């Protein structure tokens, strides 16, 4: 496990280097949807990560956002977002990261998230601690929603679907101290894990957005569930993560907005 975690860290840092070097430079922007972007740097980042992992573990499955992954033959599965925060990146807004998780038989065993701008490396191993640059991190101790700073995001189909998070945003902004929409779900989760945010919720995310971050929150002492407080699954479409202390209050507000 240690060796694989080392490979994940190496891949995240190599990819992070590419992201940082190209930030603010002229990049190629493509569209997966009207407001869903992909850049040549997403692909470069993905390629280097896949190359590093395949080189070491040729039979492992690799699930990636941009489809450069590998089917593999073993039950070992890597789940990768090569650039979480693509819209930010395309605008030169320095809030984005690389996210890599390792899953075996349905369990996330470790997660690595790297922000190359702040040189912040978040790591967690299942059943052990969560760390930022090698130092143990803990969730915040805020115990009231009204004193909490929350984070969220909105799905790319927000104009076509009524299930677009606006109702939850309206309800929670009236109940919390503040809400931020920073544009990187993986970093939002890390910030819950280390106490910069007290809670985070979002819908219609993909496994690569949440696989590493959800483990990092749990190993930092936080809670992760669906909007009703039930079991969380990285392949499902709802995530609520918090320091645990405000979880129930967030569930109560989220339930009000559910049809
Ligand atoms: C997106 C970011 C954003 C979230 C979106 C995600 P991407 O990932 O995490 O914060 O609101 O729903 O899809 O497309 O930049 O990898
Ligand atoms: Ca993402
Ligand atoms: Ca991405």
| Name of the top-level CATH class of the largest domain | Alpha Beta
In whole angstroms, how far apart are the ends? 43 Å
Strand content: 25-35%
The averaged pLDDT comes out at 95
What ions, cofactors and ligands are bound?
Answer: D-MYO-inositol-1-phosphate, calcium ion
Radius of gyration: 17 Å
Unreliable residue stretches: none
Please state how the strands of the largest beta sheet are arranged side by side. Answer: 3-4-5-6-7-8-9
Kindly state the number of beta strands: 14
Give me the secondary-structure category.
alpha+beta
Count up the domains: 2
* Rough outline: globular
The CATH architecture designation of the largest domain is: 2-Layer Sandwich
Count of alpha and pi helical runs: 7
- Tell me the name of the CATH homologous superfamily of the largest domain: Fructose-1,6-Bisphosphatase, subunit A, domain 1
Give the CATH topology of the largest domain. Fructose-1,6-Bisphosphatase, Chain A, domain 1
Please give a handful of descriptors for the protein shown:
binds D-MYO-inositol-1-phosphate, 14 strands, Fructose-1,6-Bisphosphatase, Chain A, domain 1, D-Maltodextrin-Binding Protein, domain 2, 2 domains, globular, binds calcium ion, 7 helices, 259 residues
Summarize the structure.
The chain has seven helices and 14 strands.
Tell me what you see in this structure.
The chain is an alpha+beta fold and 259 residues long. It has two domains: 2-136, Fructose-1,6-Bisphosphatase, Chain A, domain 1 (2-Layer Sandwich); 145-256, 3-Layer(aba) Sandwich (D-Maltodextrin-Binding Protein, domain 2). The protein has helices at 2-22, 40-56, 86-90, 166-173, 185-193, 207-219, 247-256, and strands spanning 29-31, 37-39, 61-64, 76-84, 97-104, 107-115, 120-125, 130-132, 135-136, 149-152, 178-180, 199-203, 223-225, 238-242. The strands form three sheets. A seven-stranded mixed beta sheet has the order 3-4-5-6-7-8-9, sandwiched between helices. Strands 11-10-12-14-13 form a five-stranded mixed beta sheet, sandwiched between helices. A two-stranded antiparallel sheet has the order 1-2. The structure holds D-MYO-inositol-1-phosphate (IPD) and calcium ion (2 copies). The site of D-MYO-inositol-1-phosphate has 14 residues, from strand 4.
């Amino acid at each position: 496990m240690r060796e694989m975690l080392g490979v994940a860290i190496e891949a995240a840092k190599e990819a992070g280097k590419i992201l940082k070097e190209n930030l603010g430079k002229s990049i190629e922007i493509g569209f997966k949807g009207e407001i869903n972007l992909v850049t040549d740097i997403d692909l470069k980042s993905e390629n280097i990560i896949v190359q590093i992992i395949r080189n070491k573990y040729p039979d492992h499955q690799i699930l990636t956002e941009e489809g450069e992954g590998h089917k593999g033959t073993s039950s070992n599965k890597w789940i990768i977002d090569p650039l979480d925060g693509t819209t930010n990146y395309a605008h030169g807004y320095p809030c984005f990261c690389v996210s890599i998780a390792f899953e075996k038989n349905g369990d996330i065993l470790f997660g690595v998230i790297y922000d190359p701008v702040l040189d912040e490396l978040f790591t967690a191993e299942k059943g052990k601690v969560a760390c930022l640059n090698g130092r143990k991190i803990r969730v915040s101790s805020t115990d009231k929603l009204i004193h909490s700073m929350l984070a969220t995001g909105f799905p790319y189909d927000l104009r076509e679907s009524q299930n677009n998070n606006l109702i939850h945003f309206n309800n929670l902004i009236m109940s919390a101290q503040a809400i931020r929409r920073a544009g990187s779900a993986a970093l939002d989760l890390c910030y819950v894990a280390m106490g910069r945010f007290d809670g985070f919720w979002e819908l219609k995310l993909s496994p690569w957005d949440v696989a590493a971050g959800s483990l990092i929150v749990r190993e930092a002492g936080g809670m992760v569930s669906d909007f009703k407080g039930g079991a969380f699954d990285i392949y499902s479409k709802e995530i609520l993560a918090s320091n645990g202390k405000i979880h129930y209050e967030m569930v109560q507000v989220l339930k009000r907005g559910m049809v």
